[in-house]
Amino acid sequence: MRISQADTDDIGGLAGLLWRDTLNEEPSRQCVDAFAVDLAQWWAAHQHSHAAFVARLLGAEIVGMAWVALLSRVPRPGATSRLSADIQSVFVMPEHRGQGIGSALVEAASEHARRLGSLRVTVHSGRRAVPVYERLGFESSRQLLHRPGR
Q: How far apart are CA 112 and CA 140, in angstroms?
């Protein structure tokens, strides 16, 4: 398995994984190729704040991904460059799960955020994945709250 930071050549593979990840959640009104065009445009506009990491096995096919969103925080005296990071859209093809691919992707995305100076890395996880994130050192926090949309 090889983990690497994604680039624009990976848009088609990333779009395919994102498209497949949402098949059970909501009906797709868009084919994967049309979504790839939209994703490319979105990423071009957000490349300064979002990075994607991909997993490949022996060939070039992408079998997993993890995104990290970086957010500049309000400066404080003596700390004018503050960053937070959020792990997003982690997905591994079902036939490749249970092999540590998702964990390796999350570690790569987290390390990227740390290298850039992120003070913390968060993740909003589904219940089934919570033990995986805990094994990777993520902890629940009473101070990190969210306000659900209506």
A: 21
Listed residue (68, 57, 111, 112) closest to 90, CA to CA: 68
Kindly tell me the sign of the dihedral angle through the C-alpha atoms of 131, 105, 138, 125.
negative
Give the pLDDT of the chain (150 residues) as one tens digit per residue.
999 999 999 999 999 999 999 887 766 678 999 999 999 999 999 999 999 999 998 878 899 999 999 999 999 999 888 999 999 999 999 999 999 999 999 999 999 999 999 989 999 998 999 999 999 999 998 888 888 887
List of domains in the chain: 2-135 (3.40.630.30)
